[in-house]
Structure formats: C-alpha cells, structure tokens
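U., I forgot to send this yesterday:
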Amino acid sequence: MKTIFSGIQPSGTPTIGNYIGAMKQFISLQNNYKGYYCIVDEHAITVQQEPQKLRQQTRSLAALYLAVGLDPEKATIFIQSEVSAHAEAAWIIQCNTTIGELERMTQFKDKSQKNGRTGVSAGLLTYPPLMVGDIVLYNADLVPVGDDQKQHLELTRDFVERFNKRYAQPNQEILTMPEVKIAEQGSRIMSLQTPTSKMSKSDSNPKGYISMLDKPDVIRKKIKSAVTDSTGIIEYDVENKPGVSNLLNIFSAVSDRSIPELVEAYAGKGYGEFKSDLAEAVVDLLEPIQIRYEELLASDELDDILDRGAEQARLVANKTLQRMKNGIGLGRKPRRK
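Result:
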C-alpha cells in the first residue's frame, strides 16, 4: 500500500467546508492507503497561543478525526509535538533550503507585508521546512492539499530532489518523492454570506460558516439566512448564482446525491424548501459525529489512541531521520556489535 500524509492545525473547530474538502476524503482513502494523520500543533505556534486553549483545541481536533470515521486500526493518528523527529528534521531541511525560497512563500509575503517584517516571528518564515519534514518523515507517496497549499508541496518536491541528489548514494534515494492530490472539483465550499469567498472558521461573521460542532438549531438558522438571489430558481451557475451553487455543492457532498439530481428534484420549488431540506441533511450528518466526539472527549479511549499513534509515528519518523543524519554526516557512525 502507498502512504498518505495529512496534517491540520488545531486553530479552531473545523467547518463543514473542511470536512467536505479534506476530512471526508480521509475516510475514503484509509482503505487503500497507509495513512498518517497529524494534528500539527507546532505549526500553530508561529503566532502566539494561549497554552490551555491550544491543548484543548489539539485534543478536540483529534477527537473529530476519529468521530468522522478515521479508524485507528487502519490509520495512524497522532500529535506532531509528541514526535520530536519533526523539529529535528526541520533543522536539517532549513539548512538545505534558501532564504529566497522561503521568502517567496505566499503566506509569509502576505503576513509580513500586512504586519511589517519586524512584527512577525521567525517561525512564520521557517515553518515551511517543518511542513516538509512532516511529509518526508513518513515516506509519503501522496499528500492531499487545497490550492492554497500547493506551493508548499512544490517546495517539498524541490527539497527531496535536492537532498537525494546531494547526499544519496548512486541509484539510491534517502527520501520519497511525494505526489500532490488536489481536492476534487466542487469540494471548495464558500461562505454562506459571501459566496465568492472560501468558507473559513476565522470569518468575522459566524453566519458565514457551519462549524462541525454547531447545534442543529444553529445550523438551521445559518442555512436559512444563507445568501442566494432573487430569482428563486435552483440551478448550478457559479458565475451568476454563486450562493445557490455553493448550497448545491454542500447538499451534494452531505447527501451523496449528484448536483444534476438535486437540481431536477427541486425544479419549480422555492429556496425555502430547498434550504430546509439542506439544513436537515447537514444536521443528519453532523449529529452522530458530535455524539461520538463527546464520547471520545469523556473517556480514556482518545488518549489511548493518541499514545499508540505517537509510538507508531516515532518508529517510522525516527528511521527516516536517521537516514537523513547518515546522509548528511551528522553523528558518529554506529559500531557493529
């Protein structure tokens, strides 16, 4: 089986958009790939965090991973900071990555221009090598990302090619070259209030997103107030009807019904009935996830799974890290016994 790696920051509760664009894919992929799913809490500290809140959000995200259907018997689920090889590999990667490459990263450019270079942490510049380490440590063949992360995967591929060329023996490779898996078309879920912008958990308007932990009445109200248009016609037309098209994308993803099928089913019907049925479909999806999530948080099962996941991850990551060290010349050559 090929290996897949994915990591999500514990920066708040994921939205229905995160579920459709990423987490739902994890479930379908776990049967065909050896999966490593990581809560990347070390990435979160590029900005200042409140310690207790960070720990709570890290554990919460791990519980959601499991509640949506990730099986710890099929996939390794772990917390990044509990596998020290990530930070150690990141230093080796930084030393084989140029400042020019890092300064070209879009997120660094955007945030440093907004806040001023003296107002951002050095970690904002150097966290892409940590992301590279996340991927290469587990010999990942495939990494599912959105368009906004494609640049980081290009950096990863450039680094793997460079590192193998510099340090690997002839006809051998130290690191595996990963392939990029872009989320399927239609999985990009937009804001309920501004359907030309991506749905985000950091949206200043809470009506713009549906949290995975929103209660049923909250979900119904948010979908009822979602922006549509004045025509009352349910059709898929992203350019002219972005609001309705976005709701159709959500409805299709949570009900496993095709968009043409939904358009036909609601032909001649108004937005009210359409939104009401969509809200119930979202509630039906999220309620069992939320019940399982609460069960995990209240038991020792979650921590037992994370303990096992960290142990499994360390075994693989430490072997890759040792290959990197051997290749670059760090440490003493082990004596044979």
